[in-house]
Amino acid sequence: xxxxxxxxxxxxxxxxxxxxxxxxxxxxxxxxxxxxxxxxxxxxxxxxxxxxxxxxxxxxxxxxxxxxxxxxxxxxxxxxxxxxxxxxxxxxxxxxxxxxxxxxxxxxxxxxxxxxxxxxxxxxxxxxxxxxxxxxxxxxxxxxxxxxxxxxxxxxxxxxxxxxxxxxxxxxxxxxxxxxxxxxxxxxxxxxxxxxxxxxxxxxxxxxxxxxxxxxxxxxxxxxxxxxxxxxxxxxxxxxxxxxxxxxxxxxxxxxxxxxxxxxxxxxxxxxxxxxxxxxxxxxxxxxxxxxxxxxxxxxxxxxxxxxxxxxxxxxxxxxxxxxxxxxxxxxxxxxxxxxxxxxxxxxxxxxxxxxxxxxxxxxxxx
Length: 367
Ligand SMILES: NC(=O)c1ccc[n+]([C@@H]2O[C@H](COP(=O)([O-])OP(=O)(O)OC[C@H]3O[C@@H](n4cnc5c(N)ncnc54)[C@H](O)[C@@H]3O)[C@@H](O)[C@H]2O)c1
Fold this sequence. Notes:
This protein has helices at 20-26, 47-53, 61-65, 100-108, 129-147, 181-193, 204-210, 225-231, 255-259, 309-338, 340-345, 356-362; strands spanning 2-5, 32-36, 56-58, 69-71, 89-92, 112-115, 173-177, 196-201, 218-222, 237-240, 266-269, 290-293, 296-299, 346-349, 352-353. By secondary structure, the protein is an alpha/beta fold. The protein has two domains: 2-110 and 309-362, Rossmann fold (3-Layer(aba) Sandwich), CATH 3.40.50; 133-307, Rossmann fold, CATH 3.40.50. The strands form two sheets. It has an eight-stranded mixed β-sheet with strand order 3-2-1-4-5-6-14-15, with helices on both faces. Strands 9-8-7-10-11-13-12 form a seven-stranded mixed β-sheet, with helices on both faces. The longest helix has 30 residues, at 309-338. The protein is globular, with a radius of gyration of 21 Å. The two termini are 28 Å apart. Nicotinamide-adenine-dinucleotide (NAD) binds at residues 117, 129-130, 132-133, 136, 177-183, 200-203, 206, 223, 241-244, 249-250, 252, 270-274, 301-305.
């Protein structure tokens, strides 16, 4: 099979979908891997490493896209729609619930589109998304403590609280909505700094199974709107980390709720890639990562792991390569038969939506 790896073009997206070790595991099986020149440089992999691993370097995105299987990190942007065509198999983060226009194009062009975020094991876990979420949760924690600082000369100033505090001061109070991979990694990082963290999680069984093993600065409660309104006015940092796989993020906050928070508080909506948890959330970019609504600093970056590409690329490719190998060796149908996680990952194929959660979010017919 010819496998193409284009350079990522999303704003400040520095990851690449395949590392040289991935190339050297595919080439012996007779596959040809075409890497767009300099695609791996920001992740620490110069072109020569790919050449040594057996890849063909191609200059243009057009050449990298002209393959049977294209492997990417982020969803195709509008300027890449021109490369979409029937019989193309595309494997990448899609988050279609948040980009209905892309869903329309994938349907119209009859692309077979597999979303990393919906590749799902029998126990319900998401083996590729979860690895990126661990990174995203930790990046969100790092950004939140920075934005909470009052820094002269920056357009947006936080409350001016040291997250962990010191003797004689109070540590920051953190509220996290969703106690999965993002939520718990953010919680661990912030608790490790000394902040006081409360996680509100929808799954009762998850609350029970995790409560005892958490850091002493973290408490986990079952999510309810009563708890949310009790905790919101006093939290210095709010992190959105809820997910229902494939679906638009549950909208947990209205504008009036955000008004309950104190001015200079920080809200990092990690769930923005699936639409965001608040009426006030809208995607931001690394050029302008934050905006202020109702006095609260909002940061809604849809590609948090992209800012730590040396870490994220290793983690992403480690999680995704076994699935890419299966698809390369057996084709989509064969791979989906052999591995049900892959069949669950297929969002769109032959002009039909094949993922129930995605179909419901897009209000489209589910096949
Ligand atoms: N912005 C980024 O760069 C980035 C990177 C990685 C992941 N994400 C996103 O972060 C979100 C969380 O991902 P994850 O891997 O942690 O998911 P996860 O499935 O591990 O955890 C989500 C948790 O949310 C809980 N939940 C669902 N509805 C809830 C509600 N109403 N209230 C409270 N909890 C609720 C679920 O029970 C689950 O435990 C997803 O939208 C994911 O796409 C964003």
